[in-house]
Specification:
Length: 116
Amino acid sequence: MKTTLKIEELAQFLLGIFFFSQLDYAWWWFPVLLLTPDIGMLGYLINTKVGALTYNIFHHKAIAIAIGLSGFYLNNSMLILIGVILFSHASFDRIFGYGLKYPDSFKNTHLGSIGK
């Protein structure tokens, strides 16, 4: 099952790359911005509950899709870009097993425990 989930996430990541290619931004913006959603980890400097909340906001695909769709509706390319980057980043993370966090520990995710 893990392999199937990773293939699904890879397909979604490639979809994110395709959506980005349809935008009017230079190609190099994609790799530059790809890791920016990890700013959500800063909440862990406060505690694990706040960290899980901020991390999950920046890594939730439904939020990414809502932001991207609002950009289409409002004809705002920046919102579309933000949605595409958030979506792509979440898929990229999940390929490597980093899922949405539970509030008890950074290592406890909806995909299982990270690490050994």
